[in-house]
Design goal:
Largest sheet: 5 strands, antiparallel
Order of helices and strands: HHHHHHHHHEHHEHHEEHEEEHHHHH
Low-confidence stretches: 1-18
Number of helices: 19
Shape: globular
Distance between the termini: 61 Å
Strand order of the largest sheet: 4-6-7-3-5
Radius of gyration: 23 Å
CATH class of one domain: Mainly Alpha
CATH topology of one domain: Helicase, Ruva Protein, domain 3
Helix content: 40-55%
Structural class: alpha+beta
Mean pLDDT: 92
């Protein structure tokens, strides 16, 4: 059956991005999604009633290409998220909802300050859930080539939630990526880990704070949260620290980091605990350093950005009464996605494999940067910045 689709976007962007997914192609994609939902057991009545009103939204694709984790420096990312107002409000809400949060902590083992930190970073403590129709957002991303398989599955999960009367289509408004409620759950996460904690017979991630907090805690517990352990901590490095030991892939017991001269940020010794940790330098060797523990990796399963995961840990610490960073990130200009692609191409050309250039400075890119730095006898912090790109340009120009 032919459907007329509306593309919610400005014409210049529409010409650049939405054109490959014209109305007929989007209709064909929706037919595919409907068939997948049917195969997953969603009723035909739900499929027909929901997909008939789904529209493609080019603004979703624009935001997908501009995620702040990839386009901001770590310093700027923290500046906009760990504000004094957010810390103050988090402390107020920790006290205001102490009974609920302590009950959730008792039942699921997740400390209250972490739940409040996730809440604050995801929706500014429920201040903004997002205003995109979730089904539109998910269908748009499912019909885009970049992450089609993942978002196709999320679209089917959303229909399944509607089919089981766990959510209503008109209620399902959220982020551009289809995340919903106080803590921005994707449909699959809501289905697997949603909890009716207030006992009203319905999981409501928007209007029931007990449901939202318990669901978040249930999700973290299911991913393997370690009770009694921190996320990590800011640390101080000695002047002669071997920077090649940094990076999320290098894990050592705390005693081994202590043997390398790593101390707490205030100068005190690291705790004597049997914990594996990795050392992160998100702004390079001139910025703050962090030892991150297993719970940090759990946070990264919630959102795979190191900047996001560090923000959760640091905000949780401050909500619980701790101080902010002792060493601030340097003031530096971010690389654009085109500049990151250029950097990746230059690294590849020099034999340092950064993967297919995509403009995202992920793990492979940082490892390639570290290999280049080692060869060039530079500090091997794996930090891709403008100074490094300028050096590589000069190197290519001068032969």
């Amino acid at each position: 059956m032919h459907r007329t689709r509306h593309l919610a976007a400005s014409l210049p962007f529409l010409a650049l991005i939405a054109a490959p997914h014209a109305a007929a192609e989007f209709d064909a994609c929706l037919d595919r999604l409907a068939a997948e939902a049917n195969a997953a057991g969603v009723s035909q009545s739900t499929i027909s009633s929901t997909t008939a009103s789904v529209n493609q939204n080019a603004r979703v694709l624009e935001l997908d290409r501009q995620q702040p984790e990839f386009l901001q420096t770590f310093g700027r990312y923290l500046e906009t998220r760990l504000t004094s107002q957010r810390v103050r409000r988090g402390r107020e809400l920790l006290e205001e909802h102490a009974e609920l949060l302590h009950s959730v902590q008792r039942d699921f083992g997740i400390p209250a300050q972490y739940l409040v930190a996730f809440w604050g970073l995801e929706t500014n403590f429920g201040g903004y859930f997002g205003d995109f129709p979730v089904l539109d957002a998910l269908a748009t991303l499912a019909c885009d080539t970049r992450r089609s398989e993942f978002f196709s599955a999320q679209f089917v999960e959303a229909l399944a939630l509607i089919d089981r009367d766990q959510m209503r289509p008109e209620q399902m408004r959220g982020s551009w990526a289809g995340a919903m409620g106080h803590t921005q759950f994707l449909p699959e996460t809501a289905r697997r880990h949603g909890i009716d904690y207030d006992g009203d017979g319905r999981i409501d991630l928007w209007n029931s704070l007990p449901d939202a907090m318990a669901s978040a805690a249930n999700y973290l517990r299911a991913m393997g949260w370690n009770e009694g352990e921190r996320w990590g901590r800011e640390v101080r490095l000695p002047d002669d620290f071997p920077l090649q030991e940094s990076g999320i892939d290098t894990r050592k017991p705390l005693r081994d980091w202590a043997a390398l001269g790593v101390r707490r940020a205030d100068g005190g010794p690291l705790p004597e605990a049997d914990i594996q940790a990795a050392l992160l330098l998100p702004s390079g060797y001139r910025g703050p350093a962090f030892l991150v523990y297993p719970n940090f990796r759990i946070i990264m399963r919630w959102n795979p950005s190191t900047a996001y995961a560090l923000s959760v840990g640091l905000l949780a610490d401050q909500i619980a009464g701790g101080e902010g960073l002792l060493r601030q990130p340097p003031d530096e200009q971010p690389l654009s996605r085109d500049e990151v692609r250029e950097l990746q191409g230059r690294l590849n050309a020099l034999g340092h494999d950064s993967g297919q250039p995509d403009g995202i400075a992920g793990r492979m890119t940082r490892n390639a940067v570290r290999a280049y730095q080692r060869q060039a006898e530079l500090p091997t912090d794996g930090h891709p910045n403008r100074a490094l790109l300028d050096r590589m340009r000069r190197q290519a120009r001068d032969g």
